[in-house]
């Protein structure tokens, strides 16, 4: 779950990440939205699935998992986000995850909907980072490329026929991975794992 609560309990106020906190209901609902998507996607590999069904499962599940990871990490790296904008962002994100679930069919005719959903999730993160992120020129550029630039690629993929749209999906994710790999990694030295939240499926930064 996203580990920075949108409705922080009073006892959690002022608590450092290392001290940990409890997962609240909105975070659990956010996870349930992704669970509903995975459940819908898994129907395609029931019975005796062929190579096509497995490829569809992989093509949909990896970008969805990566989007979930982006949201989890971003919210943890922005611990001072007020409850209201964070709650609104998570509710909007749930809506886009629902669109992901609706894009799952017996074929790939709704891949465009999945592309729009992934773009929407990145635009939400773009707003959050611009709201509370660093304001240096370099940081702003990275934010726009990582969230805004890749969102444009996902939008473009919605208008590209299969299988070329899958290629654009891979390019968008690759850009994000490269930015993380070769970007500013100083934060990695301060990463802390909250054992209580790991048990609930989350990591505290």
Structure explained in plain terms:
With 205 residues, this protein is an all-alpha fold. The protein has seven helices and no strands. The two termini are 13 Å apart.
Write out key terms for the chains shown.
205 residues; mainly alpha; 7 helices; disordered N terminus; disordered C terminus
**For the report, how would you describe the main beta sheet?**
none
User: Gap between N and C termini, in Å?
Assistant: 13 Å
Classify the beta-strand content into a percent band.
under 5%
Q: What Rg is obtained from the alpha carbons, in whole angstroms?
A: 17 Å
Mean pLDDT: 78
- Count of extended strands: 0
Question: Helical element count?
Answer: 7
| Large-scale geometry | globular
**Element pattern in H and E:** HHHHHHH
């Amino acid at each position: 779950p996203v580990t920075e609560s949108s409705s922080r309990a009073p006892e959690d106020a002022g608590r450092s990440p290392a001290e940990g906190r409890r997962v609240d209901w909105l975070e659990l609902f956010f996870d349930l939205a992704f669970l509903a998507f995975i459940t819908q996607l898994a129907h395609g590999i029931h019975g005796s699935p062929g190579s096509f069904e497995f490829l569809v499962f992989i093509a949909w599940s990896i970008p969805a998992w990566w989007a979930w990871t982006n949201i989890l990490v971003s919210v943890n790296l922005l611990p001072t986000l007020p409850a209201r904008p964070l709650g609104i962002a998570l509710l909007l994100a749930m809506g886009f995850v629902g669109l992901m679930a609706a894009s799952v069919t017996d074929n790939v005719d709704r891949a465009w909907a999945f592309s729009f959903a992934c773009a929407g999730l990145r635009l939400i993160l773009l707003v959050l980072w611009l709201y509370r992120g660093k304001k240096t020129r370099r940081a702003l550029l990275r934010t726009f490329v990582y969230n805004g630039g890749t969102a444009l690629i996902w939008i473009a993929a919605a208008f590209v026929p299969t299988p070329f749209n899958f290629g654009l999906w891979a390019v968008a994710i690759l850009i994000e991975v490269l930015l993380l790999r070769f970007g500013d990694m100083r934060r990695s030295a301060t990463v802390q794992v909250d054992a209580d939240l790991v048990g609930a499926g989350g990591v505290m930064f």
